[in-house]
Design a protein that fits this description.
The structure holds 2 protein chains of 2 kinds. Chain A is mainly beta. Chain A has helices at about 65-70, 90-95, 120-130, 205-210, and strands spanning about 1-5, 5, 10, 15-20, 25-30, 35, 40-45, 60, 75, 95-100, 105-115, 115-120, 130-135, 140-145, 150-155, 155-160, 160, 165-170, 170-175, 180, 200-205, 215-220. Chain A contains 4 helices and 22 strands. The radius of gyration of chain A is 18 Å and the shape is globular. Helix content of chain B is about 5%, strand content about 30%. Chain B starts with 7 loop residues before the first helix and ends with a strand. Classes of the chains: A mainly beta, B mainly beta. At the A-B interface, strand 1, strand 4, strand 5, strand 8 and helix 1 of A face strand 2, strand 4, strand 5, strand 6 and strand 7 of B.
């Protein structure tokens, strides 16, 4: 996931603390030395305690897809490291499960808004292709792009309107209007309509999501 | 992401990654991960449990900032088209973070900024 480094006037530069909390990475920040939950994006101890980082709307796609979207992209250029857990490919996302040392694990996408969370199983998204949901008052469109093996999340608020969408031939179409958008980029396919705003999400093991958010909603059928 | 931190044995290995996914050869710019190791002096009541240590000394990683970037061609020997990246657009620039470079614990968090936007990519 991607967090904004600034909260108001405060900058936080984060590192690995060497600690784990419920098998989740605990981060620390260089500016105050506070300790942060990675999954919550919230400082748990120190001067920044209670501060929460905003999530930025990243997408999780294969490099080939990202390169087609952004031919001039910068790519992190480090040597590779073995990732024993939480290692997915776009093919895993298309299967909806991933094989790991702990067995076959179901995948979904997880979303958070304020204190509310929602996880949607990928097989359900594969089947529906488009799900319109409400997360703590935020109307969202969750979409599966079959060609690119990509799950995407968009905010359905455009200006002062909330729109409803259909999906046809990789194009999102406004139900009660003329708006049309490319499913992958969210860019308008016609006219001077604004782009669909992305909403932050992350691919997740459903089992892990359940552990971190035991009271959160999980949709699988 | 949410990953179990690798214990001290990895931290004490020669600086290049000990291993890497699939059967692809390890290559790419060397990153002096060990240079970022530091003593961790968390309070006794710090959340969670300490899992990174060496000789009884608790360790942490100093933040990684402004990491090296290349083009998709530059990483083609390490990242396949199907390998997942964290894709981020900031202003007019696009950034991709292959998750097989964000293994841990030395690479789980990357800090950078562009066009006045500071961000932290973590896996």
């Amino acid at each position: 996931m991607v967090y904004a480094g600034d909260v108001g006037e405060r900058r936080f530069t984060l590192g690995v603390s060497g600690r784990l909390l419920d098998e989740n990475l605990v981060m620390w920040d260089e500016e105050t030395g506070s300790l942060w939950s990675q999954i919550l994006g919230e400082a748990l101890q120190g001067n920044a305690k209670g501060t929460r980082l905003d999530m930025l709307p990243a997408v999780f796609v294969g490099l080939g897809t990202w390169r087609r979207m952004h031919p001039d992209t910068h790519v992190l250029d480090l040597s590779t490291v073995r990732v024993k857990d939480w290692y997915f490919t776009s093919e895993d996302l298309a299967r909806g499960t991933v094989s790991e040392r702990r067995g076959e694990l179901d995948l979904g996408i997880g979303l958070r808004q304020g204190e509310h969370t929602l996880a949607v199983a990928l097989p359900l998204l594969h089947q529906k292709k488009l799900l319109e949901v409400d997360l703590d008052g935020v109307p969202l469109a969750l979409v599966w792009d079959e060609r690119e093996h990509a799950a995407l999340a968009y905010d359905r608020r455009l200006g002062d309107r909330t729109i409803s969408l259909t999906l046809t031939d990789r194009t999102l179409q406004e139900v009660d209007g003329e708006g049309r958008w490319d499913v992958l980029s969210g860019q308008p396919a016609n006219g001077d309509t604004a782009a669909l705003p992305r909403f932050p999400y992350l691919p997740t093991y459903l089992r892990a999501w359940r552990t971190y958010y035991p009271d959160g909603e999980i949709r699988s059928e | 992401m949410l990953a179990t931190l690798t214990l001290g044995c990895l931290l004490l290995a020669p600086q290049a990654p000990a291993s890497q996914p699939s059967s692809r050869p390890t290559s790419g710019p060397a990153q002096d991960d060990r240079a970022r190791l530091a003593t961790a002096d968390w309070p006794d009541d710090a959340p969670g449990r300490q899992v990174m240590a060496r000789g009884g000394e608790a360790l942490k990683f100093l933040p990684m900032e402004a990491p090296p970037y290349g083009t998709p061609d530059d990483v083609a020997d390490r990242v396949r088209d199907i390998d997942l990246v964290v894709g981020l657009q900031v202003a007019d620039q696009a950034f991709a973070y292959p998750i097989n470079m964000l293994g841990g614990p030395q690479r789980e968090i990357v800090n950078d900024q562009h066009a006045g936007v500071a961000f932290c990519v973590n896996w």
